[in-house]
Amino acid sequence: MTYPLHLPCSSPLTLRRGTSRPSLALPITIASFHLCRAQTKPTSPTSFFTYFKSKSFNWVLSGALTLGFSLAVPGCVEAKVGVNKPELLPKEFTTVIDVAGFLSDGQEKRLAQEISNIEKDTGFKLRVLAQNYPDTPGLAIRDFWQVDDRTIVFVADPTFGNILNFNVGASVDLDVPQSFWSRLAGKYGTIFYWKEKGEDASIEAAVMAISSCLKEPVGPRNCSDVK
What we know:
The protein is α/β, with parallel strands linked by helices. 30% of the residues lie in helices and 17% in strands.
C-alpha cells in the first residue's frame, strides 16, 4: 500500500541541506513526502544534499534509495516514489552492486578488493550501489548487506546532478568528520566532474578517498584532505 506522509517543520525528522549525507527515506513505501528546509543553507552550488541523522537503520534505508530529491519547490525537499526490487540483487553476495552498468567487471573487482581491505583494516563496512533511479533494488539492500551502525552506504546515482550520495552509520560518524562527505561530493561528484571523466571515475575516486580517510588515525585533523 502507498501512504502519503507529510511532516511538519518541528518534526525530529527535519532534514538539513548542504551536508554530506542524504537521508534514505522511510522503510514504508511512500508516494511522496515533504520535509521543510532546515535553517542551514548550502555553502556552495555543489552541496545540494540532504542529511538525515538516524540512530536506527530501520529508518535510513528506503524502498527507493534514490538519494536524490526534487529541489524545484523552494524550502522543501520532495522524495521520489519508494522502490523495492529484490529481483535486481545479485544472486551471490557482493559489496558492489552496479545495476546501472557504470563499471566494468575489472573495476568492480578492484573496488570489491579495496572494500575488503577497508573492512579488514578498520572494521568499517563500505557498500556501493550504482543505480539510475528508479532502476534500483531499493529497500532490499538493507538485508542483503546487513546494514548496521558501522556501515557506509554509498549510492552513485547521477539522476539528480551530484552522483555521490552517502548514508553513514553512527559508529562511522564518531570517527569521520561530517564535513568530509560534503567535500568529497563537491570534489568528485559534481555533474561537471562525472560528465567529463565518467560515472566510473567518480565512483572509483570516491571509494579511494573514503579508504584513505578511514585508514587515518582519528584526531582533530583526520580526513581533512580529500585525496
